[in-house]
Amino acid sequence: MGGKSKAMYKFSLIVLLSLSFTLSGCGGNNNNTAGKAEETTAAGTASANTEGKIEPFKVSVFIGAAGQQPTPDNKIYKKIKEETGASFDMEFLAGDINQKLGVMIAGQDYPDLMTGNTKLTAAGAYIPLEDLIEEHAPNLKAHYAEYWNMMKDPNDGHIYILPNYGVYNGKVNSSWYSGPAFWIQKAVLKEFNYPQVKTLDQYFDLIEQYKAKYPKIDGSPTIGFEILNYDWKNWGLFNAPQHLIGHPNDGGVVVNDGVAEVFANKDYAKQYYQKLNEINQKGLIDKETFVQNYDQYMAKLSSGTVLGMFDQHWNFNAAEDSLTTQGKIERTYVGLPLVYDESTKDYYRDLAVLNLNNGFGISINAKNAVQIIKLLDTLIQEDWQKTFSWGVEGEDYIVENGRFMRTQEQRDNAADATWQLANKAKAMFDYLPKTEGSFSDGNSTDAAAQPEEYKAGLKPFDKEVLDAYGFDSYVDFFSEPPANPVYYPAWSIDLIEGSDAKIASTKLNELQTKFLPKAILADPADFDSVWTDYTGQIEKANVKAYEDKINEQIKWRIENWSK
Amino acid sequence: MDETLEIDTVVRHPKKNRKKKKKPITWRLIKNQNQLIWMSVPLMLYIILFAYVPVWGWTMAFQNYKPAKSFGEQEWVGLKQFRFLFTDDNFIRVLRNTLAMGLINLILGFVTAIVLALLLNEIKKVFWKRTVQTISYLPHFLSWIIVTGIVATSLSINDGIVNIVLMKLHLIKEPILWLSEGKYFWGIVGASHVWKEVGWNTIIYLAAIASIDPALYEAAEIDGANRYKKMMFVTLPGIKATIVILMIMSIGHVLEAGFEVQYLLGNGLVVDWAETIDIFVLKYGLAQGNYSLATAGGIFKTVVSVTLLLMANGISKRLGEERLL
Amino acid sequence: MMDNRQISPGPKAGYTVKRSLGTGRLEPILFTSFNTLFMVCLVVVTLYPFINTIAVSFNEGNDTIRGGIYLWPREWTFQNYRAIFATGTIFDAFLVSVARTVISTILNIFLTTMLAYTLSRREYVFRQPITVIFVLTMYFSAGLIPNYFLIKDLHLLNSFWVYIFPSMISAFNMIVIRTYIGTIPESLLESAKIDGAGDFRIFMRVVFPLCKPVLATIALFVAVGAWNSWFDAFIYTSSRQNLSTLQYELMKLLSSTMNSNGNPTVQNGVGMDQNSARAMVTPLSIRAAITVVASVPILLVYPFMQKYFVVGLNVGSVKE
């Protein structure tokens, strides 16, 4: 770098400039220090009494995910501004987060409030929140009381991020299962008079029989089974084995008695892929399954010709919407928690877990951290939470005998993204601390989970299916989940960017993407040799580093998270 | 000799007397050329500031760069990043794929664009000609995700247009699962590039053709040259300088086979043919927050590029063709 | 000199070949019909993706998922466009995009041509080093973070000028123009020199007007590049809504649609609206509408520019 003096010159210039900025900033601040005292009391009593003068303040926010700027006259943000004085200057991410974070961190250019990210934590971009909460935020303190230890950063024990999901209160109404399962068309179940399907073999038998009986659906060839493995959506191919032996979703590992092992190369994984190889021989697997992209996969699902697949519900939800619009309810899916043999108890459905490393943290550049934490403390109170989730009473929902409900028009509005921009504070609420489960008056915190709302959306055919099995909702197909293991889930463990563990996991991923399709499509006689080749390569990929890191963290969690 | 060239209307190239001895730089010369200097040196300083000054960042390739630390605090690791890159089992394969697809794109891109420019030039109806030009450049404005979406649909075995046409023509008996075979992959990527960019690539040649003196065509016609002859001996030589210069520049870019198409069209079955250097660096560099590895990858590509560029320039010079430098 | 010798004999050899009379009449017709046929195929193949995109953009998002939309929408809707224009940020962003495109194009054309002219002068003493300095810039990049520091030190962060200053000259375009200037007969420049014109005057009065066809091309390249770029808005001005460009706004919209249609963390709640099975925007449909909105304005540049190709011809004949 030839130009030390030039750098010095530039540096002094910057110092001068930033000095002038801070000076003018101070000038601006001066006249609201007077108002600040007032503001403090106002915020403290905001819920009870909003008489006090409310000083407006701006909070700059970085949201590390895509989102849309709300309209300037959005009614919820307006309400927040009127009652607390806060307005938000939101910046959303569109583009590669690694590039954006790289320059943000390098330049130390942080806004006041940022969504959680392990890279930002590692770079020291957030301030510790424990003392702030202790001093200024009694509501947040109560909200997170049960979870306090889990929120601590594994590296230095400070709390930097306020998790946005996973804190439950009251009765949890659950009517929609969003997680992984083997899915099967409702029509298949109906065809065979609603049988009990518990094992993988039973599942593929049904599909085989149905396909033999109906080689075509609506004029197109029937597809027995789909496996999506496109881009980062790889669980359709990778994740099933752990569930088949009765384990919950721990990502790439299975945890037994607190010890994790990679399962991709184990015999119980081989059993699954051998089964797929076998059904492929029978022509049950879509020929295109490994070359299709996500759009093609969704097109096939929404054409109603696909009998089954392994997937997470949220991933193909849009295809079911499309089928519903087409009036093909019987082609939508039921999730089945399959296992290898009936003696194994299924463990697909789990109790919600704290959404670590997600939610908001306050940056080291924030000048008004106290003001911000007080704001967050106000917004966690129940009336605000209702405003966020249900909206404004009378406009967005109605109350009958103390129960919250919506008219059809209000439901339609709530599902309309354009309407949301003007009438919901979705962008902020997604990341704010929130109450989940039910409010103190028994209403559900999530409109869609309100039992009345769920029933209103149920179609006659769905009632028939549920009645046949004697269930209230499709969630009942899954066993009631046990209490989560302390460490759970292993997939939320941060492998640390660029570490050997992370590189090994990337490598493992590569090998699975390459070899598993090969093994499934192979001639049955060749299956074993492909499998040996595959496990041999995994051996070389240093998966030990990956397992070690997971185990180290599991241990840490067990030590620190146990109550 | 100079005299004859001056009046030669066929050749519009200026005299290029390259063997002329270089004049020594004198104050007098500089004073004489002060306008040229004022017109170019500030721009040179500008490009040095914006392109060369930030190159201090290449030091990252020899560090374990962490953006949160200042320059003085960075950990120096020598050639570790390069070693990671070059010793990976996949590196040779990835390099092969990059070179192969880069070369295919280069050659296909050049040939198709030039041929299309020549053919467009033969259209006499101005309106039709402009219509074809305008339409053929439309795909350039579609993102790769849209283009690859259409490519994947067209290659499908269910109702993909490619399989339907080939079946109708009895060229194949059964629909082919194009995207599952490594041997087709490079061709598919090459064809997709041509489809998307041929119209756009043609523009530059059309501009060059537009500058050819019509008198040359008239003269050729008087001499009885047919369409083909005019193409070969008037049009092509007229745009040769442009072709050669563009060729030299593109050879330096042969490692820029890209990553989007390969990423979007690739899958587990063809990964051995689809992965390029850019994808590799993305996966183990940027996606891991390892900016150092990304920088090392960039440096490697630059070294190869500049070497190729200088070679191409040298060969062209030796052949007496247009040169870049 | 070598290339001269290679070219010169060509036409002469050509002139001596007399075609046989038989093919004389037939050949042009055959050629023309084949050429027309070829062009028709080309038009069909290159027009299809765009028509397809337009068709998808007017089709209901929920229905688009089924696939099978080719040339015409199955379920008409304006929903996708409504979603784009609903935010209201689009119009401001459009103006920013227009401003940056126009200013970039004008500056680029002027500066790049001026530089190209000086580097086309063989007698210019710094010709070689300056050429090398510029050409090399095509083959390396310092990387994201160092560039960010440069922009930050120059106080261009969150400034409109960050769209303009870093890309005022492109080495590629400079070389293309230089090559073109190389084909202008020396005699024209010489005569201007004899009239006592300095280099700047020659450049402004002689070279600049003569370069119209290539400048039209370069203008198109620069304009399209400036119009389509979003990365600078993403890295350098993303915290300033009023500096956002059209492409970046559309990018945000697209990513947010993709996000809301498949993000495990956002949908991590216990319920899901069964009633949401209705016309709504999906990534597929919104992407199509975005493509149309983003590209149609810039597509209009090319037809406008084409007339300069003809002007080029005229200039060519004028100098006879």
From TrEMBL, chain A:
Keyword Manganese: no
Top-level taxonomic group: Bacteria
Entry annotated with the keyword Cell wall biogenesis/degradation: no
Signal peptide extent: 1-27
Transmembrane segments: none
Swiss-Prot/TrEMBL keywords: Signal
Listed PROSITE patterns: PROKAR_LIPOPROTEIN
SUPFAM superfamilies in UniProt: Periplasmic binding protein-like II (SSF53850)
PANTHER family linked: ARABINOSE-BINDING PROTEIN-RELATED (PTHR43649), DIACETYLCHITOBIOSE BINDING PROTEIN DASA (PTHR43649:SF12)
Protein name: Sugar ABC transporter substrate-binding protein
Source species of the chain: Paenibacillus phytohabitans
From TrEMBL, chain B:
Transmembrane segments: 36-57, 99-120, 141-166, 202-220, 232-255, 291-315
Membrane topology type: Multi-pass membrane protein
Subcellular location as annotated: Cell membrane; Membrane
CDD domains: TM_PBP2
Keywords: Membrane, Transmembrane, Transmembrane helix, Transport
Domain ABC transmembrane type-1: 95-312
Superkingdom as given in the UniProt entry: Bacteria
InterPro entries, per the entry: MetI-like, MetI-like_sf
A Pfam family assignment: BPD_transp_1
Family (UniProt): Belongs to the binding-protein-dependent transport system permease family.
Protein name: ABC transporter permease subunit
Organism: Paenibacillus phytohabitans
